[in-house]
Write a structure and sequence with these properties.
- Helix content is about 50%, strand content about 10%.
- The radius of gyration is 20 Å and the shape is globular.
- The two termini are about 25 Å apart.
- The chain has 14 helices and 6 strands.
- The strands form 2 sheets. Strands 4-3-6-5 form a 4-stranded mixed β-sheet. A two-stranded parallel ribbon has the order 1-2.
- Bound molecules: fe (ii) ion (FE2).
- The site of fe (ii) ion has 6 residues, from helix 7 and helix 10.
Length: about 325
């Protein structure tokens, strides 16, 4: 990998590791890789500073009670299987040694934002794009972009569960169906209009399930008996309890039509959350999403957040698909 050698040259042999380590938005290693338009990288473990390591320990340590109280059972089992330790930031290689035999999934290091088709296509191949930087120790609650705590402690334990893993793979298949459909649309204006709507719908579905989903504690559980499986909640010290306890949060059964038309904002606690019954239910819902997409029922979803970036559109238009 050409870029990787380039980065190594930039940092070695006589250049000391930057004092900032691998802190989110302040990591020269990541800036350099992004400048070379690289998305997939290795985890430059030696660059983590003592402060980065201490931040990981604090983040893991303060979540233990909350995970036990609010976390979905499958998530808690996943944490056990991965043996995440507060003592040190995990090596992705070690994570993958535990993870791959269970569901075929692996965590793959990236520089940060991945355009949406590439992200979802990774899921189809059972690769999870994983950020390797960690948030600034002075702002544990502030997250300008995902970090390794969100990705590894929030997402990856879920990937040990076969039913959840299949739902993610199916999400990738849904993106592939969108790319095929858009390629078959001749009119350029209509192509972009449909694609923008389809991406918005898939983003909203992903947000209200994989990132912020709630699940009934057990099949047939009482309406109020809920657990968290969304990774945005599982990696948030404040919001995990708010999602379950706060009376002002509206919690509704997951309905595709409502979800794909529901704008969301990322800079405050979510006022509205959606509930699935099980991961088999989630898997079925993703299949339904794909059927809706193929039938053209996601071509005119409500406008509003999230914004669809040029890079997201371009990633779908450039998709290589069967
Ligand atoms: Fe996430």
């Amino acid at each position: 990998m050409i870029w990787r050698e380039g980065i190594r040259m930039a940092l070695a042999p006589n250049t000391p590791a930057p004092a900032t380590g691998l802190t989110t938005t302040a990591a020269p290693f990541i800036e350099e890789a992004r400048a070379h338009r690289e998305i997939y990288i290795h985890q430059p473990y030696e660059l983590y500073s003592d402060d980065n390591q201490a931040t990981w320990g604090r983040l893991i340590g303060r979540m233990q009670d909350r995970w036990g109280r609010y976390g979905n059972r499958r998530y808690l089992e996943g944490l056990d299987k991965l043996q995440l330790s507060p003592a040190r930031i995990p090596h992705l290689e070690d994570i993958n040694r535990f993870l791959q035999p269970l569901t075929g999934f692996c965590a793959r290091a990236v520089t940060g934002y991945v355009p949406s088709y590439l992200f979802l296509d990774c899921l189809r191949r059972r690769e999870f794009p994983t950020t390797v930087t960690i948030r600034d120790s002075a702002h544990l609650e502030y997250l300008p972009e995902p970090d390794i705590f969100h990705d590894v402690a929030g997402h990856v334990p879920m990937h040990t569960d076969p039913a959840f893993a299949e739902a993610l793979v199916r999400f990738g298949a849904c993106a592939a169906a969108a790319a095929r459909r858009v390629a078959a649309t001749a009119d350029q204006h209509e192509k972009l209009r449909r694609l923008t709507s389809n991406i918005r719908a898939m983003s909203r579905f992903f947000w209200f399930s994989v990132e912020f989903g709630l699940m009934r504690a057990s099949p047939g559980a009482r309406d109020g008996d809920l657990k968290v499986y969304g990774s945005g909640l599982l990696s948030s010290f404040g919001e995990i309890s708010h999602a379950i306890e706060a009376p002002e949060v509206e919690r509704r059964p997951f309905e595709i039509e409502r979800v794909v038309n529901q704008p969301f904002e990322i800079d405050h606690y979510q006022p509205l959350l959606f509930i699935v019954d099980s991961f088999d239910h989630l898997f079925a819902l993703v299949g339904e999403l794909e059927a809706w997409l193929v039938a053209g029922k996601l071509d005119d979803v409500a406008g509003g957040e999230p914004e669809v970036k040029e890079a997201d559109l371009a990633s779908f238009l450039a998709a290589k698909h069967d």
